[in-house]
Amino acid sequence: MSELTDLGVKAIRDGVAGGSFTAREVAEAFNAAVAEAADLNAFIVTTPDHALAAADAADAKRARGEDLGIMGGVPIGMKDLFATRGVQTTAASHILEGFTPQYESTVSQKLWDAGAGMLGKLNLDQFAMGSSNETSYFGNVSSPWKKNGTNAAMSPGGSSGGSSSAVAARIAPAATGTDTGGSIRQPAAFTGICGIKPTYGRCSRWGVVAFASSLDQAGPMARSVEDCAIMLEAMAGFDPKDATSLKLDVPQWEAGLSADLKGKKIGIPKEYRMDGTDEAILKSWEQGKEWLRDAGAEIVDISLPHTKYALPAYYIVAPAEASSNLARYDGVRYGLRDLPDGAGLQDMYAATRAAGFGDEVKRRILIGTYVLSAGFYDAYYTQAQKIRTLVSQDFEQAFGQCDAILAPTTPTASFPLGSLNEDPLTMYLNDVFAVPASLAGLPAMSVPAMVNDDGLPLGLQIVGKPFDEQGVLNTGLAIQQRAGFDAQPDKWW
């Protein structure tokens, strides 16, 4: 049944509903693939029984002639940032190792209600802080892709590297991700899959371990635009438990898919042509323009003048919010507790956090605490929030001239694990094209375009107007149909 693992969300759902195969057969095939691919280290915890139970429920519904749901019979990977009842949830951090929630995140519950099952909890950068999936307490995730002529382990991107690796390796048909400054789109680009960050507030943050609350947003990662549309439809919706949740009806994104862009204008931001961007990336961008012209769109030049300030502003705002959010991990209520002999309360706090947090998390807490401290708040944090407003205004003005924006997803293709560990600033630059849309809370998607001369995937990014996920998906579909991206990593695991 190995061919079942080549199927995506739509093909599995329709195949189960149509009786071509059973949901249990699908679950068994993916459970076996997950077990076989342990060398990728994509999963922290596997939950084969959860996948089989959901599959049996789907098969029983079909036997009774009942609706299976929009994700009926589809087993997925769940990023280990989403609380899952009775299943360890760690955010890939030692400080939460062994934490088993007695509640379910809103997004995961919506997916189970839609008929999906869980293959396991996916590895990530610790507390979603990283661009390479090398900060996890549970070890690095390897990309299934290799650079031509070398056997070096490549980065699957971050923070949703376990998700991107699992989907690209075909050990999960789809997975949840979260995107704070590009953590769905960048790993999707690195591994040749699709991933969409919806408008901030489309998907509930309740039950998702917080990094930066004004930026974090859940979204789907899958091998096609259609599969992302289906999964996003299942994940999205108003949640009264989340004060930032949008009280809007969930559109029928799958039914609304169309690759006909006649009458649409696609903006090309001149500021995204940055020094240091790979020539292959720029070539794929030019090709993307031609594909969209072929789909009927008009290509127009636009300006986003504050783009160069977006990344430094992000790396003030996000660590500041992280500093506040991670203060709850103190060794008192849950998670790790390190209590040295004769220690007082402050000693316990210090020992617990020193042992429980990794270097990158500590770095961002220190940055965040510094920029929020007396004497520096106005100089750094207030200024960064002003930049955030200007970035949002740039997009608002640009969307007066165009319907969507086309840009590269990343400045380079994937890189070998360990190659940027000594240079965090270069690592942060991986998010340079993704961060502006995050600061503005806009829907944005990465779609695979081509492979470079090293045999590594390159992605193109579409940024849309607020609440216009349909426009983003449609533009992505037009690229997907013309790119015909069907490259797969050679199986080495």
UniProtKB/TrEMBL annotation:
Report TM segments: none
Database matches in Pfam families:
Amidase
* Positions of the catalytic residues: 79, 159, 183
One term of GO molecular function: glutaminyl-tRNA synthase (glutamine-hydrolyzing) activity
InterPro entries given in the database record: Amidase, Amidase_CS, Amidase_dom, AS_sf, GatA
GO terms (BP aspect): translation
Question: Which keywords accompany this UniProt record?
Answer: ATP-binding, Ligase, Nucleotide-binding, Protein biosynthesis, Transferase
GO terms for CC?
A: glutamyl-tRNA(Gln) amidotransferase complex
Q: Gene3D superfamilies from the xrefs?
A: Amidase signature (AS) domain
Question: Taking every annotated instance into account, which residue ranges of this chain make up the domain Amidase?
Answer: 26-473
Its EC number is: 6.3.5.7
**Keyword field contains Nucleotide-binding:** yes
Write out the catalysed reaction.
L-glutamyl-tRNA(Gln) + L-glutamine + ATP + H2O = L-glutaminyl-tRNA(Gln) + L-glutamate + ADP + phosphate + H(+)
Quaternary arrangement and interactors, per the entry? Heterotrimer of A, B and C subunits.
Functional note: Allows the formation of correctly charged Gln-tRNA(Gln) through the transamidation of misacylated Glu-tRNA(Gln) in organisms which lack glutaminyl-tRNA synthetase. The reaction takes place in the presence of glutamine and ATP through an activated gamma-phospho-Glu-tRNA(Gln).
Which protein family is it in? Belongs to the amidase family. GatA subfamily.
How is this protein named in the record?
Glutamyl-tRNA(Gln) amidotransferase subunit A
The record lists the lineage as: Bacteria, Pseudomonadati, Pseudomonadota, Alphaproteobacteria, Sphingomonadales
Annotated gene: gatA
